[in-house]
């Protein structure tokens, strides 16, 4: 069963996800850091550190949102970063952020469908995505597109929420995600569905070794999974 933000809405998951992020775009950065207690910043740093040996010059940030992951990737000193997202609201916030930080010359944010990336094959040294693959309407299509546009020998780094399995982190995590997070998210963003969708989509996502198996099936090489912060999120790495 496909998990969607607005259960009364008959439109596709892709359309609903775009609408949801448009609705919460103005509060997204604050809620992202507040609800994770800032741990998401450390997760992004860890993810980007995986690319250091590659020294990528061109990077694609899929489901870039407001561009935080793209900004973190600047530590790799690339020549160009392109971020794509289906939410115009998120992109608008991100473009203003790049302009304010004087980064719009190196980071370009575009509207783009992650499942139909508007780039030629073998175009990027690295492809990154943080908390985005869970929102793909067709997971395998999106992952295949990421593999298509990265060059041979290039790397794909995926950061995504996962489900802790050990006591007591599993119980604490489930309580926070199901009861605390939706209430705070609803109060701040005024979107009653967005932060209910988040735990539901995490619960339905094939994390850990299940996700690694999907990457293997699609042709990714040297795949591995690295759990972060007791398994609250996971880092997936694969090469072409």
List its salient traits.
globular; alpha/beta; 240 residues; seven-stranded mixed sheet; 7 strands; 21% strand
Commentary on this structure:
The protein is of the alpha/beta class. Helix 6 (139-149) links the parallel strand 4 (124-130) and strand 5 (150-161). The chain has one domain: 3-Layer(aba) Sandwich (Rossmann fold), CATH 3.40.50.150. Helix content is 42%, strand content 21%.
Looking at CATH, the homologous superfamily is Vaccinia Virus protein VP39
The total count of helices amounts to 9
What is the CATH class name? Alpha Beta
Alpha-carbon Rg, integer: 17 Å
**pLDDT < 50 runs, ≥5 residues:** none
Distance between the ends: 30 Å
C-alpha geometry: globular
Let me know the largest β-sheet: 7 strands, mixed
What is the CATH third-level topology name?
Rossmann fold
Secondary-structure element string = HHHEHEHEEHEHHHEE
Question: What is the total tally of β strands?
Answer: 7
- Domain module count: 1
Oligomer: single chain
Beta fraction of the residues? 15-25%
Indicate the structural class: alpha/beta
Helix content: 40-55%
């Amino acid at each position: 069963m496909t998990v969607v933000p607005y259960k009364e809405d008959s439109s596709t998951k892709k359309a609903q996800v775009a609408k949801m992020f448009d609705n919460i775009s103005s509060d997204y950065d604050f809620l992202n850091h507040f609800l994770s207690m800032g741990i998401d910043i450390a997760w992004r740093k860890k993810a980007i550190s995986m690319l250091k040996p590659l020294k990528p010059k061109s990077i694609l940030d899929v489901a870039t949102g407001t561009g935080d992951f793209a900004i973190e990737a600047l530590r790799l000193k690339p020549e160009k970063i392109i971020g794509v997202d289906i939410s115009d609201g998120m992109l608008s916030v991100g473009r203003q952020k790049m302009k304010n930080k004087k980064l719009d010359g190196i980071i370009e944010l575009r509207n783009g469908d992650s499942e139909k990336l508007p780039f030629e094959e073998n175009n990027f040294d690295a492809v990154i995505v943080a908390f985005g693959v869970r929102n793909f309407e067709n997971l395998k299509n999106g992952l295949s597109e990421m593999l298509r546009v990265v060059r041979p020998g290039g790397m794909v780094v995926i950061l995504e929420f996962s489900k802790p399995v050990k006591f007591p982190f599993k119980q604490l995590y489930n309580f926070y995600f199901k009861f605390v997070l939706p209430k705070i998210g609803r109060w701040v963003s005024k979107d009653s569905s967005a932060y209910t969708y988040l735990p539901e989509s995490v619960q339905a996502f094939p994390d850990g070794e299940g996700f690694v198996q999907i990457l293997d099936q699609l042709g990714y090489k040297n795949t591995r999974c690295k759990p972060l912060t007791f398994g609250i999120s996971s880092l997936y790495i694969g090469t072409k």
